[in-house]
Amino acid sequence: METVPVGPGFAAELRGVTLADVANDDAAYASVRAAFEEHSVLVFRGQEVTDDLQLAFSKRFGPPEVTKVGSLGTGSHFVILSTIGPDGKVVPPDHRYALRNKANQLWHTDSSFKRTPALTSVLSARIIPARGGETEYVSTRLAFERLDPALRQKLENSFAWHDYNHSRSQIAPGLATPEERAALPPVCWRMVWKNPVNGRGALYLASHAYAIEGMEPAAGKALIDELTAAATVPQASYVHVWQSGDVLMWDNRATMHRGRPWPAHEARLMVRTTVSATAADGFESMRPPTQQAAE
Length: 295
Ligand SMILES: [Fe+2]
Description:
alpha+beta; 295 residues; globular; 3-stranded antiparallel sheet; 7-stranded mixed sheet
């Protein structure tokens, strides 16, 4: 396996290894897992992806999420990100599918709003537009390390509230349905996720984050916005231009990402699998102390 760095201090393309190798071979998994811990975003090119293979690969890293209510693929292990309607045609720009893509264009971390957040997301390109539709990443580990030590220390002991409805309401009122809102009440996580393998902390932020525990609401939101702006300065990002056969995986504990727009009349179909974080991934220390004591 060859590791080729592709981004500013994070993100690497892995050559000489396939999804099937990782699914079937312990040594291949161990190498890719080590690269994942270090580089946060991994790019695999020229893969022959099927749903079954993507799931077998993903399961190596931990328990796969079951897709939530209100998403295409609900109840399965797959999230279908599509702009193709049931009639086989690309949906109009005001369609729910298109608005969901717009919500994906806010900087976020997958599943921070769930009771169990995600370790990693695996995304495969099935149909890609001729231009646009890139995925852009930043390292919230490097962003954390750029902050001054006093602020780092404060954030390590701060907790933020995350709510799916908050991010969706920025795009269109009512985009999160009553069913989704009932299934996904706000959750509270430590603002720094420490990687148990290398000990490095990363800001845990997302478009879903809206308040900081113990801070006045406006001041908390202002700090979240300030940290997001500092993490997402353009020179700090890796923009992935999708090619057919590409599969990406990223560490939701140490990155944020956003989708980039593409011409509305062009089809795009991506399939995501998402793996839940476990105690071995440092999840337990993310809970507020009151919850740690209660469970
Ligand atoms: Fe995402």
